[in-house]
Amino acid sequence: MLLALLLILAALGAGMAAVGTVWTTVAQREKEAELLFVGEQYRRAIESYQQRSPGTDKRSPPSLEALLQDQRFPMPVRHLRRLYPDPMTGRPDWGLVRDAQGGIVGVHSLAEGAPMKTAGFTSVQQGFEEATSYREWVFSARPPESKAGGAEAAGSEASPGQPDQRPRPARVPGGGAGAAQQTGGMTSIDRP
Predict the structure, then answer these.
(1) Could you report the per-residue pLDDT of 41-65, keeping only the tens digit for each?
(2) Mean of pLDDT values over 22-29
(3) Which sign, positive or negative, has the C-alpha torsion 18, 23, 26, 28?
(4) pLDDT single digits (tens) 139-167
């Protein structure tokens, strides 16, 4: 009788372990889907901020808070509904990609884990397939088009079959949190 009870408990333990593994995988995939959604919200908000810049000088936002209340107009403009936390870490901290003037041109997660999703990304998310960390999923705005350099800006976008030229954070061995990294004219800062 005692042996049968031990066998039943062992079977239940193995079943619970399998359910736990499946639940962890499902939760991870949901967080990744949320990261893709939230990252796209930030990317679109940054592009909106750049496109709506007064005059011909298209600027990037100096902070994420500027996406909530754009004070450059008589009536403040909202490019983003709210500041979203990073779904992978659960914290409001994001890695920021800045341009030469210090404006934010992209965001990325500060999570270290390797993505489960490796295919099925949109054309705007080119390069995510090769990512080995969530930090490499950089949601960056397309360079703003100015009236003086419209042809140059249009030529900088990726053509079908060619890799996307938007900034990506550099892989620096030992580059921990808070490290600033120069990336093709852009600086990636791990913490805002």
Answers:
(1) 999 999 999 999 887 778 899 999 9
(2) 85
(3) negative
(4) 999 876 544 443 333 333 333 333 444 44
- pTM of this prediction? 0.67
> Which SS3 state, helix, strand or coil, does residue 10 take?
helix
Cα distance between residue 34 and residue 157, in whole Å? 26
Cα separation, 192 vs 190, in Å, equals: 7
Domain ranges of the chain: 29-170+178-189
DSSP letters of 124-163? GGTTGGG-SSGGG--EEPPPPP-STTHHHHHHTSPPTTS-
In whole angstroms, give the CA distance from residue 30 to residue 157.
30
Element of type H or E holding 53: none
Closest CA to 113 of 137, 83, 138, 139: 137
Burial class of residue 151 (count of CB atoms within 10 Å of its CB; 0-12, 13-18, 19+): exposed
Tokens of 114: 């390797």
Q: Are 114 and 121 spatial neighbours (Cβ–Cβ below 8 Å)?
A: no
Buried b (16+ CB within 10 A) or exposed e, 60-97: bbeebebbbebeeeeeeeebbeeebebbbbeeeebbbb
Question: Using CB atoms within 10 A of its CB, is residue 23 exposed (0-12), middle (13-18) or buried (19+)?
Answer: exposed
Cα(24)–Cα(47) distance, rounded to whole angstroms? 34
